Every structure is written in C-alpha cells, then in structure tokens.
Amino acid sequence: MKKTNNAILELLIVFITATALTGTAGCATGEAKIDEMKADTKIVESERIISALEVKTEAFVSTLEVTGTALPVRESFLSTEVPGTVKEILVSEGDEVKKGQILLKLDQSGFAMGVAQAEAGLAAAKANADLMKLEFDRMSKLIASDATAQSNYDRVKAQYDAAQAQCKVVETQLQQAKKAMNDSILRAPYNGAVVMILKDLGEYAPSMPPTMLMKIVNTDSLEVQTFLPEDLSNKIKVGDKARVSIASANLETEGEIIFTSNRLEQATQNFEVRIKIDNADGKIKGGAFTRINFTREDLTDALLVPLRSVLRGSDGKPYVFTVKDGVVHRTDIKIGQADGSRIHVLEGIGVGDQVVTAGANDLKDGNKVKVENNI
Question: What is the predicted pLDDT for the residue at 116?
Fold first, then answer.
C-alpha cells in the first residue's frame, strides 16, 4: 500500500513539472507574437490613410450676389414758376397721369388782371401808333414837296418810332402776363404717377426759393442701383447682363448694365453700378429692394479642387497636400473664386496632380500615405 502511494505521488510531481514547462514555453511564444504585432502597428501608423483626387480642367462659373434698390428712371418734384395760393388740386396721390395733364392750379385772379391790363395797354399803344402813322404819312408828303421844315418831319418821325416801340413793349408785357397765368397751372411733365402732394388748398407757395408742390414718377422702366467691390471694376462693363430678383413683386428678370462709375466711394471703396430693367406692367414699385447676381468668371478650363482640400498656414496663405509616390508634399497655391464646394486654383498645381481631399489636417510634409478614396 505504501508503495502504491509513492507511485501516485511521483506521477503527480511529473505532471506538475511538465505543465510548468509547457506554460513557460507558451509565455515565450506569446511575447514573440506581441512583438510582431507591435512591429506591424508601426508600419500601419507610418502609412496614413487619406483620400485624393487627380486634378483636371473643368468649366467654372463664379457669381456674386449683392443687394440694390430699384429706382424710377424719371422722378421729379414739381413746382410752379410763379408764386401764389393753391386754389385747386385736381389729382390724388396714386393717380396715373398723362403728359400735359393739369394737376394743380394757383389762384389766377391776379394773373388774369395782369393779362387784362396788358391787353388794354396794348390796345392803347396800338391806337396811338395808328394815329402817329397817319401824322407821319402826312409829314412825309409835306417834306417831299418842301412844304414843311425838316425839324418838323424829324419830330413826327421820332414820335412815330416811339409809338411803334411802345407797342412792342406792351406786347412783351402781355406775353409775360399770359405766361405767368399759364405758369400758375401745374401740369404733368410726362406720363407717370403722383406719389406725393405736398401742399393743401389755401396754402401759399412762394417761387423763391421754389416750393415743391407734388412728386411724380414714371416706373415704366427702372434702374437698379447697387455698389460693387473694387476688384470687379475691370470685369463689369456697360452692356453686360445681370440677373435681378425682386421678392416684393415675386419676379426675376434680366437687366442690362447701363452705367458704371469711374470713382470709388471713399467710405467703402465700392463703385456704383446701374442696371436697367423693364417694368411696363408696373409690378415693381419704385424703391423696391432687389438682389442682383453678377458673373465674376466664366471659364471652360479652370483647375478646381474641393474647398476642404485647401488649408491655411500660420501666415494665412493657402496650401494643399499633393501626393507623389506615396508621399505627401505641402504645396503653396494661389486661389481665385469659390463656387459652392469648389474653389478655383490659379497657381501652384497642374493637371494630373493628386491633391489630398480627406485626412489632410494631421499631415506633415513628407508623410507616407496610402490613398483610399472611400474614407
């Protein structure tokens, strides 16, 4: 029995020893595998995963949207050339009027009296001139037959000439009186609409300085006024087209640039531009707020890259990462206008270059990369 127990004990010792030896060998193998994994991890880290695209030329249209104001082409404050008291107002604000239509009258009683006096004066002057003509004709016959002295003839001729001159003076006075009476009537200078009436019945309107009585506008065509940045001064020219949107009229139309200022506004360094648009149906109100789209560039062969590709250095200058033979290179670029998610590259890269489009934020010049365009 004792021998049996010893045998069992010996077998147990052998088993424990074998197990210990096997465990030690297993640990060594595990450590080797961990070392191998670490080595593999270093390789993966050295090849950064990025996305890139090959640069090609594409069509590119860049636009600029600005705001503006639709102004009537013809807009006038009206006054009379003579002073007077407002006697009649024949229109209301908002009325459409025709050229020559009477809008307002001053009290004409004084002007009518002036006309009557001038007419009476002219009649008297003409009667006197007729009498002097008879006397002059008689004196002319006498002097021809040496029946009167030269001095008598000269005196009558002078009186006749004075009578004729007086007629001309009074005729002029009559014309002035009639003009003053006519000027006391305010008429529409063109087809349009009355937008303001500035005097009431019974109010006195002096002529010096002129008193504004009404405001009239013609909105058959409008000029949209806007201001553009200085860098567009050589790109926007008279005759170019622009898209104009007017939300208040629920309208979008095309207009023609009819004016570009040759000076910059001091405060903003912007220059004025005016665009003519048609408004024959009267949908657009004078002074309406507008949005205008100008074409800045229209190219058929522009180099474009995604906006997200463009980074900026500490100096603010733009750059991209290009890929060649699995290595990235920081490449300084010069950029133009953006269009949605793309931007026009003017200098720095060329057709066929590979530009990093994703994963660029952590890159450094010279990093090894692996291009996978599905990230």
Answer: 95
